[in-house]
Amino acid sequence: MGTIPDLGAGLRKLEALVEVPPAACDGPRRWWGGALDVEGLALGSVQAVATALNALTGSPGRYSTSAAHAAAAFDSLGHLRIAGQKPVGFAPMSGFRPTKDGWIRLHANYPHHAARLLEALSATSPQDVDRTLLSMTSLEAEAAIVANKGVAAAVRSRTEWLASPMHHAAASGGWIDIESSAEHAAASHRTAWFPATNPRLPLDGLRVLDLTRVIAGPTATRLLGALGADVLRIDPPQLPELTDAFVDSGFDKRSAEADLGRTADLGVINGLVASADVVVTGYHDGGLDRFGLGPGALLASRPGLVVATLTAWGRSGPWKGQRGFDSLVQAATGIAERYGQPDDAGWKPGALPVQALDHATGYGLAAAVIALLGERLHTGRGGLARMSLARTAEELFALPRDYGDVAASPLPEPDVVVTDSPYGTLEFVAPPLLVGGTQLMYREPPVQYGSSVLAWRRQADLP
Q1: CA separation for the pair 457, 209 (Å, rounded)
Q2: SS3 182
Q3: What confidence tier does 185 reach under pLDDT thresholds 50, 70, 90?
Q4: CA 368 to CA 379: how far, in whole Å?
Q5: Res 122: pLDDT
Q6: Which terminus in the chain has less CB density within 10 A, N or C?
Q7: Do β-strands 254-257 and 230-235 pair in parallel, antiparallel, or remain unpaired?
């Protein structure tokens, strides 16, 4: 295998990882091919998790990954079958659409985003959307949709993105931005957690509050759950998650609903935070601040907490509070242009072979959480990890593409696991980590959405 980008290098500022070598990774270095080193992004992000686990458990070489396992995990939704059915993918109004002067990428998978898109363009059907967009420039359409709280991004060239203030904000800092808490952990914090001795469940007993949605954040917490953590995912009842996305990322975690705008529900959430080890959030920058659940407020009240936060566009710049998805970040940053191809209409933008920005950011978040847990064992302090999909896009562009004579090599079909679930029989691929050379497995299928008690597992089990 050729050189793998050391995406976990930024974690080595932490004392717990200073002298830990990158985890092993076997298999071909290229398999998708294409204009950018998506394989390096996949391998490097999963390798970062394995490296952090080796450091946390003091067991160099125990955790590793491989090309075949990383590739399968990055296309987990593509391999998923729910009661024999393939996930739907993008909704009819999502995708690339031509405009008067170029192209725009729309995201209308969620009903509320579809409604806002139609309203922004004074349209009543997908055909109306297409006609209206042809009368607007891509930037005009982007501005109109975003102003109406819809989600869309004009397809920009890489040169256009580099010249924008959004790029300057997205490119700042490291891929994983780490901050250690300046104070020692509060006496009330649960400092009794230590890695478990079971190498397949090293996070047993860890409490993780999951305030994330869609793919990237849930990918991180799914892996933490597979490693033994008690993961409680909480969603707003007024904006239910898409079923396919929820099932894909719902293994080894529980699911509850809570309205943060209700005093009673927020009080319960604050109680969960008070006894949590980790909080992972995935809303746009500042989206949870008014509830006292922003990273600054969380660490101020709980210096021993580990907080990991994800946004689409970062925490500075003109788009810092804007909603976004992997597909839109690809469109805005120049990836869609780089993967564009000729078609019957002349040219059409393209996309990465998988939603690599989401998955890589998810594994980066998981690596950061594990690394900060290791640091907490050394110092008694918690810490904060920040990541964004736009920063991951910049990392992808920065990866060298000098493969020498290494050609793309086909990978074997992944092993598919089958289990029963509340959604019917599931066919899926396992996590991308190897423990002593044997693949890690999920222990529990997804629960019914919103069916769990708003309590930690052991509390919920009490009579």
Answers
A1: 12
A2: coil
A3: very low
A4: 16
A5: 95
A6: C
A7: parallel
Would you place residue 221 in the very low, low, confident or very high pLDDT band (cuts 50, 70, 90)? very high
Query: 0.85 cut: is pTM over it?
Result: yes
Nearest in space to 56 (alpha carbons), one of 177, 208, 194, 230:
194
Domain ranges of the chain: 7-86+169-314+354-460
How many Cα atoms sit within 13 Å of 400 on the Cβ side? Answer: 8
As given in the structure block, the two tokens for residue 134 are 């042809």
What DSSP character marks residue 409? Answer: -
Q: How far apart, in Å, are the Cα atoms of 85 and each of 93, 192, 442?
A: 21, 44, 21
Residue 406: is its pLDDT beyond 70?
no
Rounded to the nearest 10°, the torsion over CA 369, 371, 374, 380 is -70
CA distance linking residue 112 with residue 377, whole number of Å: 43
For the record, the structure tokens of 300 come out as: 């101020």
* Domain at 7-86+169-314+354-460: CATH architecture: 3-Layer(aba) Sandwich (3.40)
Which residue in 265, 277, 285, 358 is the catalytic one? 358
358 has catalytic annotation: yes
Q: Where are the alpha helices (DSSP H) in 399-460?
A: 457-460
Strand 177-180, strand 152-154: pairing: unpaired
Q: What is the DSSP letter of 275?
A: T
Whether the CB-CB separation of 97 and 68 falls below 8 Å is answered with no
Give the N- to C-terminal CA distance of the chain in Å, as an integer. 53
Question: If you write DSSP's letter for every residue of 23-87 in order, what string do you get?
Answer: PPEES-S-SS-SSS-HHHHHHHHHHHHHHHHHHHHT-TTSEEEEHHHHHHHHTHHHH-EETTBPP
Give the span between the Cα atoms of 259 and 133, in whole angstroms: 36
The residues, ordered by sequence, that sit 6+ positions from 42 with a Cβ below 8 Å of its Cβ are 70, 71, 74, 354, 356, 359, 360
